[in-house]
Specification:
Its cofactor is FAD. It comes from Bradyrhizobium lablabi. InterPro entries: ACX4-like (IPR045008), Acyl-CoA_DH_CS (IPR006089), Acyl-CoA_Oxase/DH_mid-dom (IPR006091), Acyl-CoA_Oxase/DH_mid-dom_sf (IPR046373), AcylCo_DH-like_C (IPR036250), AcylCo_DH/oxidase_C (IPR009075), AcylCoA_DH/ox_N (IPR013786), AcylCoA_DH/ox_N_sf (IPR037069). Belongs to the acyl-CoA dehydrogenase family. There is one protein chain. By secondary structure, the protein is of the alpha+beta class. The chain has three domains: about 25-140, Butyryl-Coa Dehydrogenase, subunit A, domain 1, CATH 1.10.540; about 145-250, Butyryl-CoA Dehydrogenase, subunit A, domain 2; about 255-400, Butyryl-CoA Dehydrogenase, subunit A, domain 3 (Up-down Bundle). Helix content is about 50%, strand content about 15%. The protein contains twelve helices and nine strands. The strands form two sheets. Strands 1, 2, 3, 4, 5, 6 and 7 form a seven-stranded mixed β-sheet that branches. It has a two-stranded antiparallel sheet with strand order 8-9. Helix 9 (about 300-330) packs antiparallel against helix 10. The longest helix is centred in the last third of the chain and has 36 residues, at about 255-290.
C-alpha cells in the first residue's frame, strides 16, 4: 500500500495538449504571406474582440472602437482585385471568415456584410467610376456599408416578390418600401438597396446614403442571436436617389444573385468558425472542470461529445477548403455554394449543441461563452438563404427537376 501511495504522489501533474480546432492542419495549404495575415486576424480577435464581446453582446450594442483596429489588420476586400482591397484568394477570404467567427459570429457578420455583401455589390455591379468612388474608403473601413435585400413580408421569395419599388423621374429614381434585418444599417454610410422597377418589373440596385431624404432606419431590438450586429428596419418613403447612385451593372435579379453566390460561401465559413470556437471552449472547459477528483475530459461520455464535435468541425473545414478551391478556379456554381451553406449550418447547430451539453448548467452562462455560440448559430442557420431554399437549389441541380413552387 505504501508503494502505491508513493507512486500516486509522484504522478506528474496533468498537462493538457494544446487546444487547436484545426485537427487536419488545413491551414498548411496557405503560403507564408497568407498565414501571416491569419496570425494578425487571430491576434485581433483574441486581443481586441474577445475581452469585450460578452459585455457588448449582453447590452445589444456594437463595439465601434474595434473598427479602426480591424482596418489595421488589412482584411478589407480579401479576394478582390484593386481599389485598395487586400486581394488574395477566396480560400484566404474563407480563412479570415472562419477566424473571425471562431471568436464571435457578430463581428464576422459585420465584416461579411460590409466587405462582402455591400462592397461586393459595388465590386460586381458598379461601373468603374462607382467602384473608384466608393470602394477604397470601404476597404479602409472609413465608410461602412449595409445590404438591403430582405423585406418585412418577403425573405426567400425576393427574386420574384420584391415589394420595394423604384421609378425613374428624370435624372433620379424614387424608391418606396421597407427592408428588414439589415445588418450595419443603423450606422452605415453606404446602404445598397435593391428595388423592383415599376415599369419593367426588373430588380435594380442603388447606393443610398444615410442622410438621403426619405431614408430612415429603426433598430431591431430584443434579438436572441447576433446581438452585437445592429440590424435595422429601413423605410424608404419617396426616397430620391440620383441616377449616378444606381449600380450601373445591376439590371435584373440575376445580378443580385451573383453577389449572393459569392457571399454565401462566407456564411458557410462562419458556420465552420462558430463550431471551431465552441469546440475549443468546450475542450478547454473539459480539461479544467473537475468532478470526482479529475478533469471531466477523462470521462468516456465527455470524450464522445468532444470527438463528435471535432468530426463536424473537420468535415466542414474539408468541404469548405475544396469549395474555396473551386471558387478560385472559377468552377463554383450556385449549387456548390448552397450545399455548403445548408450542410455547414446544420452541423454548426449540432456542434454548438454538443458544447452546451458538455458544459451542463454552466453552458447557459454568458461568461462561459458557449451560450453565445448556441444563440448565434441560430441566426447563421437562417440568413443568406434558409436550409430549405438551399436544399431546393441543390436538389434541382442533381435531379434536373425544379421543386420550387
Amino acid at each position: 500500500m505504501a508503494s502505491l501511495q508513493t507512486a500516486l504522489a509522484e504522478k506528474p501533474a496533468y498537462s493538457p495538449p494544446p487546444i487547436d480546432g484545426d485537427f487536419y492542419r488545413i491551414a498548411n495549404v496557405l503560403d507564408e504571406r497568407e498565414r501571416a495575415l491569419i496570425t494578425r486576424v487571430r491576434a485581433f480577435t483574441e486581443g481586441v474582440v474577445a475581452p469585450v464581446i460578452e459585455e457588448y453582446w449582453a447590452r445589444d450594442e456594437f463595439p465601434f472602437e474595434i473598427i479602426p483596429k480591424m482596418a489595421e489588420v488589412g482584411i478589407g476586400g480579401v479576394g478582390y482585385g484593386g481599389y485598395g482591397a487586400a486581394g488574395g484568394s477566396w480560400l484566404l477570404n474563407g480563412f479570415v471568415a472562419m477566424e473571425l467567427a471562431r471568436v464571435d459570429s457578430s463581428v464576422a457578420t459585420f465584416w461579411g456584410v460590409h466587405t462582402g455583401l455591400s462592397a461586393g455589390s459595388i465590386y460586381l455591379c458598379g461601373d468603374e467610376e462607382q467602384k473608384q468612388r466608393w470602394l477604397p474608403a470601404m476597404m479602409r473601413f472609413e465608410k461602412i456599408g449595409s445590404f438591403g435585400l430582405t423585406e418585412p413580408l418577403v425573405g426567400s421569395a425576393t427574386s420574384g416578390g420584391m415589394m420595394t419599388t423604384c421609378r425613374r423621374e428624370g435624372d433620379a429614381w424614387v424608391l418606396n418600401g421597407q427592408k428588414k434585418w439589415i445588418g450595419n444599417s443603423t450606422f452605415a454610410d453606404i446602404n445598397v438597396i435593391w428595388a423592383r422597377e415599376e415599369a419593367t418589373n426588373q430588380v435594380k440596385g442603388f447606393v443610398v446614403g444615410k442622410d438621403s431624404p426619405g431614408f430612415s432606419v429603426e433598430k431591431i431590438r430584443t434579438k436572441m442571436a447576433l446581438r452585437v450586429v445592429q440590424n435595422g428596419l429601413i423605410t424608404l418613403k419617396d426616397c430620391c436617389v440620383p441616377e449616378t447612385e444606381r449600380l450601373q451593372n445591376a439590371n435584373t435579379f440575376k445580378d443580385t444573385a451573383k453577389v449572393l453566390r459569392m457571399t454565401r460561401t462566407g456564411v458557410a465559413w462562419f458556420a465552420v468558425g462558430c463550431q471551431m470556437g465552441a469546440y475549443e471552449h468546450a475542450l478547454r472547459y473539459a480539461t479544467e472542470r473537475l468532478q470526482f477528483g479529475k478533469p471531466i475530459g477523462g470521462f468516456q461520455l465527455v470524450q464522445d461529445l468532444l470527438v463528435r464535435m471535432l468530426g463536424n468541425v473537420t468535415a466542414t473545414q474539408a468541404m469548405m477548403l475544396r469549395l474555396a478551391q473551386l471558387q478560385d478556379e472559377g468552377l463554383m456554381k450556385d449549387e456548390h455554394a448552397s450545399l455548403a451553406k445548408a450542410f455547414c449550418t446544420v452541423k454548426c447547430r449540432e456542434t454548438v449543441g454538443y458544447a452546451r451539453e458538455l458544459l451542463g448548467g454552466n453552458g447557459i452562462l454568458l461568461e462561459n461563452h458557449i451560450g453565445r455560440f448556441v444563440a448565434d448559430a441560430e441566426a447563421i442557420y437562417s440568413y443568406e438563404g434558409t436550409r430549405e431554399m438551399n436544399t431546393l437549389i441543390v436538389g434541382k441541380a442533381i435531379t434536373g427537376l425544379s421543386a420550387f413552387v
